[in-house]
Each structure stands twice: as C-alpha cells, then as structure tokens.
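Section 5.1 Outputs to date
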Amino acid sequence: QDIDIIDDPNTNQFRSIENVINKVIRVLSNLAISEENGLIIIRRDDCIDLLFKLLKAPNQHSEELLVHVLMALNNLSYYDDPQSYINRNSETLAQCKI
C-alpha cells in the first residue's frame, strides 16, 4: 500500500509543490540576513502573512517546511522595526508556536 502512495501522481505533485515552496522560503530566509533586504521584507505584510498562514496549518505541511518557515521568521524577527508585520502580530506568532 505504501508503494501506491509513492506512485500516486497527486502525492508526487503535492511533494513537488511543497519542495518549491521550501526553496522559496529558504531564499527569503537567506535574503533576510542582509539588513537592507530584511527591512524591506518585514514591511511586506503579504509576504510575512503567508509564512504565518503556513504555521497555522502545521498538519497539512511537512516538518521540513515548518522548520524553514520558522527559520525565516527567526531571521526576519531580528530586525526591530515598528512597521514590521512580525512585531505588530507577535501575539499571533506566539499562538502559532504553541
């Protein structure tokens, strides 16, 4: 039965999509290391909100994806900026981690 799951085109497509999302999040996380880039990213509500949404549905995603999301948020939370979506929604972030 496990072989059927591996050969299932829908499962393979889902894994492929999740793999791309992982790579995009890793790029975002690496970009955030630069202060100039990090400040731009943390002010983009749409970008950070997507990371929050991924955290809110952990059962739908692999552990690897959740680790990458948390790494990105960690890198982005380094910048203390009142305009930051992360700072304005820190309570929501704390609830996601619980």
